[in-house]
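Job type: complex structure
Entries:
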Amino acid sequence: MREIRTVACVGAGVIGGGWAAHFLARGFRVHAWDPAPDAEEKLRTLIDRAWPALTEIGLAEGASRDALTVFGTLAAAVEGADFVQESGPEKLPAKRRLLADIDAAAGQNVVVASSTSGYGMTEMQADARTPGRLVVGHPFNPPYLIPLVEVVGGELTEPWAVAEAAAFYRRVGKSVITMDRELPGFIANRLQEALWREALHMVANGEATVEQIDTAITEGPGLRWPAQGPCLTFHLAGGEGGMAHMLDHFGPSLRSPWTRLTAPELTGELRDAMVSGCAEEAGERSIAELVAERDRAIIAVRRAVAQARDRGSR
Amino acid sequence: MREIRTVACVGAGVIGGGWAAHFLARGFRVHAWDPAPDAEEKLRTLIDRAWPALTEIGLAEGASRDALTVFGTLAAAVEGADFVQESGPEKLPAKRRLLADIDAAAGQNVVVASSTSGYGMTEMQADARTPGRLVVGHPFNPPYLIPLVEVVGGELTEPWAVAEAAAFYRRVGKSVITMDRELPGFIANRLQEALWREALHMVANGEATVEQIDTAITEGPGLRWPAQGPCLTFHLAGGEGGMAHMLDHFGPSLRSPWTRLTAPELTGELRDAMVSGCAEEAGERSIAELVAERDRAIIAVRRAVAQARDRGSR
C-alpha cells in the first residue's frame, strides 16, 4: 500500500473543512482547494474552532495547523497528494465533473474518495479516465469527531481501491463500514433520512414543532443510540425474550400508521434474520449484561451532555 | 392537585416494571399487578437489576424496594392508588378492556395514564365509565433512565387530567412533551419507527446486516442525537448559513431515493418553519457556540460510552 503523507481536500465547506481538520490533527499535510472566494478564510476559521476539541482528544505527533496549504487551482492541490478526499457540492453533474478533473490531476494509483451523502460511485465515475481508483468514503458531520465512514465502490471501481481507502480510514481512527453493494444513501443516511423526512412531514402538517422533535430525540431514544443501535435497543425491549419476543409482541404495531413509512411484511424469514442478527451482535453478553451496559451508558451519556451544555453556558 | 404517595403499576413487564423501579427510586409506594404467573419474580428481578443504576443517580429520601406490594387482583392494586400507570399488552381491545377495569376500580379523580406506544386515547377510552381522567403517558425504555414522557389526552379526556399527569411526571424527574392533538405514534415513536422500518426493509432485502445497521448509528449520527436533535444537527450541517443554507443546499436530496419514505414537498412555508424553528431553539447561541457545545458533547459521549462498555467487560 502506498505511503500516505499528504491528503488533498477538494471542497472546503463544512464537510471538506472537517476532513481537513481531522487529517491535520492526525499529523498529515493537507492540500486544500475550493473555488469559493472566501473559502480559505472560512476553512481556517473552521479548523481553528475544531482545534480545541482535537487537542482534547489528542493530536498525533507533529500535528500542526501549519501543515495546511490552500492552493489556487484544483490540479495544484491534487497533484502532490497521496490520497484525495472530494467534498464538493451535492449535485450529480458537479460531482461527475469534479471527480473527472481530480482523476486527471492525481498521481498514478492515488485513491480518490468522495464524501457524497448518497450518490452511487457508478453514476459519479462515468466521466473519469481511470475510474478504478474512485470510491465513496462517506463521513458524518463533524468528520473530525464522528468515527463512521461508509466505503463502497462503483461498478468500475477496482477492489484494491476499496481496500486501500478502508485501511487508510481505519489508520486515521475511523470506524469503517465497507459495503459490498451500492445503495442510495448507503446505510446510516438511509436510516437518518427516514427519521428526517418523518420530521419534515410533521412540521409541514403542524403535528409537532422543531423544538418538540429535537426534544423527543435528545430526551428519548437519542440517549440510547450512542451505546446500542436500534436493533440491540429493541432486543432489550423484549425483556429476557429479546428480539424474538419483541417482534412477536410488537409485530402487529408494524401495521399501525405510526409513521408515513410502510413497514415490510414481517415474514418468518425477516423475523429470524433480526433474531439471529441480534444474537450474533450480542455475542456472549446476556440480556442482563446488555441491560447493565446500557444503563451505565445512559447515565454516563446524560451526565456528559449536561456537563458539555453547562460548560458552554458559563 | 391530589397528593400522590402511592402509584399503581398495572402490567409489570419491561415497561411496567421499569416504571415501578422509577417510582420506587423516587420514594413512592408502588402497587403492582400483572396476570402472568411468574410476574412477581420477573418484576423483582428487573427492579434489582435497575437498582444499582438508580442508586448511582441518587435515590429519593426513604426510597426502598420494600415499598413494592404485588397484588393478586387488579382492583386490589388500583383501589388505594393516587395515580395509575397502565403498561399492558400493546393490543387495542386489551387496552380498552384494561383501562375500563382500572377506571372502575380507581378512586375518584385519580389520573390513569397509559404507556401505550402509539394508540390514541380516544380509541382506548371508549369503554370507560369516567373517561375524563384517562391520558396517555408514553415513556421510553428504560422508564427509570430515559426522561421523555409524551402526554396527550383523547377526545373525552378533561384538561385537568392532562395537566395533572404532566405535573406529576415533571415532579418525578421526567422531561414531558404535552401534545395538544392525538397523533398515532406520538412524536418520538413516529421518528424512531420510521428509522426502524427502514432498517427492517434493509435487512429484508439483504442490503445491510443487523450489526451494520447498529454500527451505522452508534458510530455515526447516534453520537450527535443525545446533545442535539435532528433539526439542530442539520442546522449545524449548514455551516454559518445554518438550516436555511442546509435546506437550500441539500433540499434536492429530498427527492433522492435515500429511504423508502417519500419526503414532503419543500415548500417555502416548510423551509421557513424549519429555519425559524431552529432559530428559536438555538436562542442566543451562535452557530460557533452550538458547534463548540456539540463538539464537547460528542467527545464526552464517546468517552462515556467507551467507559461504560469497558466496565462491563472486566
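Summary: Chain A touches chain B through 129 residues (CB under 8 Å). The first strand of chain A starts at residue 6 and ends at 10.
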